[in-house]
Design brief:
Layout (H helix, E strand, L loop, with lengths): L4 H30 L13 E4 L5 E7 L4 E9 L41 E9 L4 E9 L4 E10 L4 E8 L2 E9 L4
Antiparallel strand pairs: 1-2, 1-8, 2-3, 3-4, 4-5, 5-6, 6-7, 7-8
Length: 180
């Protein structure tokens, strides 16, 4: 049975529309399953640049291998030692020069520049705690490394870092650098 031109056109358009709809649906399902359309993973909220208390430094946190997170100092308010530095005669040579890791307990590492220094390492996301755990924080002002955990607050605008020594702890709040 031969269809009229109008009916044939209407059937053809209906088939095309159904085919396009099916292709779009398949593409959206495929993209959602691969993570293309989905939002960033909650654990990646820590990525970016953070301002430490008092605005003394900026630390950029990046994703590392095997789901870990680490951070480096990328900016210092005072990147050089003051010209009237030293605390003692052995530090005389540091006056006016870029700051180094001179409090590190390992003497071989005391000449490392503070800028670029990794101060956060080994963190991984723990969804049940809604926190980053298992990491360490290095404080270049005293050369000590602390077991730490960190978590986001205030809608991801603040990062809490808690360092532990035995049962004692201290918590700092870092602010996300605006525009990052």
């Amino acid at each position: 049975m031969k269809q009229s031109g109008f009916n044939a056109l209407r059937i053809h358009r209906g088939k095309v529309w159904r085919r396009r709809a099916a292709l779009m649906c398949a593409a959206l399902c495929l993209a959602a399953g691969s993570g293309v359309v989905t939002a960033a993973a909650p654990q990646d909220g820590v990525l970016g640049t953070w301002v430490t208390p008092g605005g003394k430094s900026h630390v950029t946190i990046e994703a590392g291998p095997h789901g870990t997170y680490a951070g480096r100092i990328v900016w210092l308010r005072h990147p050089d030692y003051p010209h009237d530095y030293p605390a003692n005669d052995s530090d005389q040579a540091l006056a006016g020069r870029p700051k180094v890791d001179n409090h590190n307990p390992d003497r071989k590492l005391r000449n490392r520049p503070i800028l670029g220094l990794r101060v956060i390492s080994g963190f991984h996301w723990n969804a049940s705690d809604n926190a980053y755990v298992g990491g360490a924080c290095y404080d270049p002002t005293d050369g000590k490394t602390y077991h730490c955990r960190m978590w986001l607050t205030n809608g991801g605008k603040e990062l809490k870092l808690r360092g532990y020594v035995w049962i004692f702890y201290k918590t700092q709040t870092w602010r996300r650098l605006s525009g990052h």
